[in-house]
Amino acid sequence: AYQGRAALVVRPATTEEVAAVVRLCHDAGVALVPQGGNTGLCGGSIPDSSGRQVVLSLTRMKRIREIDLANETITVEAGVILQQLQEAASQAGRLFPLSLGAEGSCTVGGNLATNAGGTAVLRYGNMRELTLGLEVVLPDGRVWHGLRGLRKDNTGYDLKHLFIGSEGTLGIITAAVLKLFPGPHSTGTAWVALPTPQAAVDLIGHVRSLCADRLTGFEMMSRQSLEFVLDHVAGCSDPLQGPHPWYALIELRDTVPDAPLDLLLESGLGHAFETGWVIDAVIASNQTQAAALWALREGISEAQNHEGPSLKHDISVPVSQIPAFIERTDSALQQAFPGVRIVSYGHMGDGNLHYNISKPLGHADAPFKAQEQAIMQVIYQMTSAFNGSISAEHGLGQAKPDAAAHFKDPLEIELMRAIKHTLDPTGLMNPGKVFATGLE
Ligand code: MLT
Ligand code: ZN
User: Atom 9 of ligand 1 has which residue's CA nearest to it?
Assistant: First the structure.
């Protein structure tokens, strides 16, 4: 979706090398675009088309610096691939819980720079909540050594939170101290059919009161989303008989081996059948079946690409408001753009919907793409009416700064700009990202 032209790509292997490159660019007035695994969906790691920006790739900074089991922390460099971090934690008998579709190639630096979310946020939080300390090369080349593994530190402003989610606009994150957790020894996975999104809200509340922290993920998807997967992703089949309007994928985890999670799921779902929240359900009886259910959820993004351009949105509203959001936005869109196919799915437990749109069946791409801005306006206006966020997990990158400038409180934008100006007065760090062009 995004293309750029870099003056050159530099691939430093140490913090000192990153700092040296940043100092050179700072002195020469050359803009830098930090890049990790290059899997972002909003173009945050892609240079502009001028051919004058330097891409600074962190992929050679891939050392695991330290594991402190007693402190339950791991210190890693920015270029470590998320899956390698998960494996290192697992080899140490621990869990690093961040999990998302791109985990085989996205890097820790990008996860931090975008405050990545994924499918276990409900239980463990997003990247921000998983981070205790950071090492950052500032825009003038100085290094902030903030690699502290402290769970308590009230010595003033917590600066790491400025850099997490800043998408490379305030400095370059080179390493982080991250939290570890006990590894799960039992997993329970259920796929359920639901009559309405409201039933999903009721079911989350019920499962959570029954299972508390064991509830790790609650993903929801519409029939349209599942149909795209069944049509386009090889080896997938519908686990239930007959079409149903909505589905949820529920995952429980426990640190106790052989914990009776299936029994918990059965008892929770039994009540849900009686109240009418659930129409039908299947509980995975082994890891292979659980993986097949997850493949249905994780295949949606890829499957939608086979249906022409996907207009991707990544909104959040309070969980309680999701049913009303879907009802009102669906109806506004169908009225204004009859026949568009709405692919609603996402991290229901976090109130985060990937409310994506595909063209009407049989229509050409071009006229549909021409409506992109108008469709987006309807969705973002509705998100705003529900006091939601137009970007819940993918960030702003170069895709959404204008929308953020429009829909965010002007005071928040003003404060953000003041921070940007303080840390990066010459505007050389990832220009054109996060802030609308010309405003940084
Ligand atoms: C997902 O949750 O599947 C992704 O964040 C959405 C996407 O790839 O569009
Ligand atoms: Zn997502």
Answer: 301
